[in-house]
Target: Transcriptional regulator
Amino acid sequence: MKRISLTLDDKLYKEMENAMSILGETNRSRFVASIIAEKISELVQKPMASIIIYIYDHEVGEVAKNLTEIQHEFRDVIRASTHIHLDDRNCLEVIHALGDSERIRGLVTRMSRVGRGLRFLRVVNIPRLE
Model:
């Protein structure tokens, strides 16, 4: 284990403390280390696990059809998905992906290009625990 020093401006420090509070995290070192591990996993890790969360308006164009077609193209990395109805128009889906990091990034890139009707897209990459 290595000890490092980190300097943050006041605004960023307050934002970090607020984020820690929201997450219920009390250990600054663990919080910063988890963020660094997540970012590294986005860049270099093969294979990796990811959770892809998105919301779409199913009444806009063919957004639901397009998202489903993309998922079929990436079934080699998609392990499971869930779908819930938020209201009359909006659906929330969560995709559990496992596999080659470049392939998962390709999935997310394709989804982000759906455009109209896709209201929210967020990816959580899970760092490999060794």
Observations:
- The chain has a mean pLDDT of 88.
- The chain has four helices and four strands.
- The two ends are 14 Å apart (CA to CA).
- Residues 28-44 form the longest helix (17 residues).
